[in-house]
Design a protein that fits this description.
The protein has about 230 residues and is an alpha/beta fold. The chain contains eight helices and nine strands. Bound molecules: S-adenosyl-L-homocysteine (SAH).
């Protein structure tokens, strides 16, 4: 079974969007993963297919109804669907490459995209949703976040990347940022490619890359060198 993604959204027209182009798009047309997009509004209430209401206790904005969302989730993923159910949410655990690897090795994901002020808290527990954040900032909706999550997973599916190796020495693998890259021309605006990369000594090149990666990580992301406990 290949990786299968189901997206629940109020804006199905946003998909496949960037997932339909380049690496993920090619892989989609080659059948290495599949994408199903479902409109939450199909489960809306009444003639107007209402999906949201005002927050209990008052305040600005609207909240996605738990009953509407639950019926959308139930229609998309029966109770025995083995795929993790994700709610894109700035309150969620920040997404890391280690979790992306786990997702990519699994059967796929069911991803709920929030809108407005968010979703009624009860559906999160009632449908066992794992909240995932893509960073400490607030988007207007979960759709761009869902695309980020799926993109990160899809590129790790075997056969998606041209060279399997290109997934190995990247940023965050081994808790390091990646070393710098260079290509032609050899000289550009007075800046040259480091000699060591042109010398052909692969052991030296490896050592240089490792040292650069460590230096960059210490300077920019010292937090990676003392990582928090792994995701469950
Ligand atoms: N009022 C909420 C923000 C709602 S933003 C709060 O303060 O926490 C609307 C929707 O966008 C959210 O329900 C979520 O699905 C999505 N979203 C916004 N920022 C996000 C982030 N950093 N990561 C993942 N999803 C996000």
């Amino acid at each position: 079974m290949s990786f299968s993604a189901t997206i629940l959204t109020l804006y199905p027209e946003m998909f496949p969007g960037l997932l339909g182009a380049s690496l993920s798009g090619d892989a989609l047309s080659r059948g290495l993963w599949s994408l199903e997009v479902r409109n939450i509004r199909d489960h809306g209430i009444g003639r107007h297919r209402t999906v949201d209401d005002t927050p209990a206790g008052g305040g600005v904005g609207m909240v996605l109804r738990c009953d509407v969302l639950a019926s959308a989730i139930d229609a998309a993923a029966p109770a025995d669907d083995p795929r993790p159910r994700i709610l894109m949410s700035p309150r969620g655990r920040p997404l890391r490459q280690s979790r992306v690897r786990e997702f990519a090795a699994g059967p796929g994901l069911v991803v709920v995209c929030g809108r407005f002020e968010g979703v009624d808290e009860r559906v999160i527990a009632g449908r066992n949703l794992e909240e995932v954040s893509i960073g400490d900032f607030v988007l207007s909706g979960g759709e761009p976040a869902a695309m980020v999550l799926i993109d990160a997973c899809v590129r790790l599916i075997p056969g998606v990347m041209g060279k399997e190796a290109s997934g190995q020495a990247e940023s965050f693998e081994g808790n390091l940022l990646e070393h710098p890259h260079y290509t032609r021309p050899r000289e550009w605006e007075g800046r040259s490619i480091p000699d060591i990369l042109l010398g052909g000594n692969h052991a030296l090149i490896e050592r240089w890359r490792r040292e650069e990666a460590e230096m960059l990580t210490r300077a920019r992301r010292p937090d990676l060198l003392s990582p928090p406990p792994r995701d469950p």
